Structure formats: C-alpha cells, structure tokens
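Batch queue: ligand-bound targets. Current item pairs a single chain with S-adenosylmethionine. No template structures supplied; prediction is de novo from sequence plus SMILES. Inputs echoed for audit trail.
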Amino acid sequence: MLVREGLVEVEVPDVPETKGPGKKMPGFYNGSQKINRDISVAFLNTVKPNLSLDAFGGTGIRGIRFREEAGVPTVISETNPASAEIIRKNIERNGNRTTLIQADCESVMRDFLFGFIDVDPYGSALPYIDSALRNVRNGGYVGITATDLSALTGSAEKATARRYRARVGVDSLKHEKGVRLLIRAVIEHGAAFDIAPVPLISFWHSHFYRVIFQVNHGATRCDELLSNIDAVDVGGNVEGPLWTGKIESEAILSTLKVPDQIAEDRNTSELLAYLKSEDTSIFFTDLNEAARKIGMDPPRISTVIDRLREKGFTAVRTHFFPTGIKCSPKCPDQEIENAIRGN
Ligand SMILES: C[S@@+](CC[C@H](N)C(=O)[O-])C[C@H]1O[C@@H](n2cnc3c(N)ncnc32)[C@H](O)[C@@H]1O
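Prediction returned. Tokens below.
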C-alpha cells in the first residue's frame, strides 16, 4: 500500500500496523512513529548537518524525508535484503538522491563522518549507543528511539536492573522517569569515552521514547553532565539513578524551523508546544491524585494552573501525563491543595 507522509510517498508491504516493535517484517512501517520522524525532520531542517545517517532503514521513509524535507544529504543503511529492495524502490519513486547502503549500520557509521546519526532499532537502543556516539562528528547530533519501555519504566523490574542498573516504580511519573533513565544511560555510555551527549529534544509518545542529543568531546563536559545524575525521592521512595538536568533545549525549540507540511499536523504541533514550555522542573503533580487525597473532585486543570500562576508560580501542563502539572519553583503540596480548593 502507498503511504504519504510529509512531502514523500512510500510503498509499504500490506501488513496490519502494530503499535509496538513486534512485527519484524521487511519494509517495517509504523504510522505512530510519524511524530518522531516529523520532529526529526524539523530538527535537521534547523541544524542542517553536513551528512545524516538513517541507520535503520525499514521502508526508507525517514531518510527519504531527511533529504526531501530538510534538504540534508542522507545515507540509509539496512541489513535485510528484502527491506533494502523496498528502500531502493522508494528512493526511486521519490526521485530522491538519498544513498542506500545494504550493510550493518555500525560499519557504515565508521566509513563516513556523519553530522547526524539516527538510531531507530527494534527494542532497546543500548547495543548501538557506543557506535553512534563515537562515530558522529564532534559537535554533531545523535537521535535515539527506544521502544523497550517495560525496562525503562520499571514494569519489567529485572530488565530495568540488568540493562539500566536502576530501580524505578511504576506510577504516573513513569514516562518522565523512563526518558530520564534513557538519557542517563546515553550520558554514561558517552562518558566512558570522554564524549558528552547533551539532550536537546526529549519526549514520550505511544510505545517509544525519543531523545536527540548534541555530542561534544571533552572530559570536563562529561563530568558536568555526570554531576546531574542522581537518586531521586519519589513520594518517599529512593529511585533511579536518573538524569535530573534539563531535557529540552529552549534555544533549539524556540528556533525550530518546522516545515508547513509538518506544522499542519495537530499532534506534532501540540507536542512541540508542550516541549517548548514544560521543562521547568523535574517531575509533576497529578491533579487527580492530589484532589483525591483531599477528598475533592478535581477542578479543570486550566483553573488550577491559573490559580497557581496568580500566586507567582510558573505552572504548565506536561505531555508526560494528561492531568500532570509542572510547577516552578516546586509548589509545596499545600499550594496545590489551595489551588484545588480555590483558596
Ligand atoms: C524499527 S525498523 C526502522 C524503522 C524506520 N527507521 C522508520 O522510521 O520507519 C528497524 C529496521 O532496521 C533494520 N536493521 C536491524 N539491524 C540493523 C543493523 N544492524 N544495521 C542496519 N539495519 C538494521 C531492520 O531490518 C529493520 O528494517
């Protein structure tokens, strides 16, 4: 079947779409990753790297979009011969000058000096993080998609401990903790080589996390990043260790050059609007839970946010949870309670 996304059209095999990474068919296409590709295209359109690598081709849609919509010279790598054939046809269909290399992405990463490497494997990204960080150019960018959410959210406790050497509880904060755990892992992998990956854009959507990093070399930079990795107190429990620093770059998000065909997609635009404003603090308060604790029905979230702002707090919604409120400086429970009661 033909799929149109952004400015490109690709042929994908007629298999039912799945939410997760389960279907490992040639030419794997997942519509719920459009938002991931949209934001990656907008990012590349803004930072304009010399050369980008779509390391895990699938149908080639990502790399073809990088070339077509961000104007960035792009290589696509793909190991599966049937997928490579689908990618070759899709490049041709779009009259696109993307280069396909049928090979393991780690060898392709070593053969060129990329300014951006996109890591989007099935499941955990951990096996590819070192190669991407070590081979991207100094000052370049690495985008990492992770779909091993059961490990990152702590719902598969043993996998969380084994892969990420962490302990996290499953609650309303689980996706923010999961993103922060992924960032911690990437920073620690980089630090082993004196490479410092700084998160610029981070989000959760559906079954995946996505973080785009800028990668600079330097031991001092690594030490600065590592000083922001710590255990955190979550409702009296010690969890983590997690990345506790900023997860978004205001400088990037406020100057993001979003092409019209991407801005038209409400899901993508709404998510970008959240990301621009929400990185005011680590974690948030769930309005419903706070109201339940004091035996009240929750008022509208916008009402509570307005009341907190009137008291001088910077209160915002977060994409991590529909009834989550981020507040800076951190609101004492009493202030949230007052805002719920209208005091
Ligand atoms: C999750 S899909 C990629 C989806 C694609 N990036 C997109 O946005 O639609 C993963 C793809 O990577 C390919 N792959 C797996 N291991 C690889 C490797 N080491 N090097 C290159 N490609 C690989 C698989 O055959 C599969 O087509």
